[in-house]
Description:
Blueprint: H1 3-14, E1 27-31, E2 34-38, E3 43-46, H2 55-72, E4 76-81, H3 89-95, E5 99-100, E6 104-110, H4 111-114, E7 126-130, H5 133-147, H6 153-164, E8 169-176, E9 179-188, E10 194-202, H7 211-225, E11 230-235, H8 240-246, E12 249-259
Parallel strand pairs: 3-4, 10-11
Antiparallel strand pairs: 1-2, 2-3, 4-12, 5-12, 6-11, 6-12, 7-8, 8-9, 9-10
Helix pairs in contact: 5-6
Amino acid sequence: MTDKEILLAAYDDQMRGAPPNPPAGITHEQDGPLLRIVGQFRGFVGGPRDLGVRGAELDGLIARQRDFFAARGEAVEWKTRGHDVPADLTDRLRAAGFVPEERETVLVGSAADMAVGQPEPPRDVVLRQVTADADMHRIAALETAVWGDDMSWLAKDLIGRVAAAPDEIAVFVTEAGGEVVSAAWLVFRAGTEFAGLWGGSTLAEWRGRGIYRALVAVRAELAVTRGVKYLQVDASDDSSPILQRLGLHAVTTTTPYVWTPPAS
Length: 264
């Protein structure tokens, strides 16, 4: 096997089941081969690389997820990967009313390699780990400003994760003059060799100064101290080239397909 095949096999084997210790109010359910997560800002559905169903049976499985969340009046995201089978899964999702959002690149690499030569943030920027609820609301405001979408739900999500399993998430911010200018978090995956790099958003006027790289490095170093072998990221087109230069490898792509209830 090539290095990419080894990394992808580890990802498929360890990162596609139910994450442990869900926050209060969030439940994990199985529907055949699928994991269904209920109680987040929108529903979530995911499964193994091969769902093991085809044709009309697959259509029925898709319709069941859509109808389940329709009854709740909620949107639902079906997380697909570029190497999934059956190959017509995305066509069948579209036919059932699911709409693709932006495709991202799944990157995997060695935590130890990513922790080498840890860069420092600029002198006028302070990098710190945070746990307070107020900081999570500041992070949600930052993410809203960066991405132009309402990300207020993120504060509740991060607060719930810290409360449910504080040893499984580490949240970092960088600040300048008391303002949060970037944020990112590291999510440990108990029972696996993986941790995930999430967030990684920086205000436009603060980009290009090494802040993003410093946030990657501090999380990689923490992962190594916790015995993590692999780091994984779902990367945007903006961050993917940076992360690949830092040592991560593109193993596949991921595209969320989202069904949204009709406006009443």
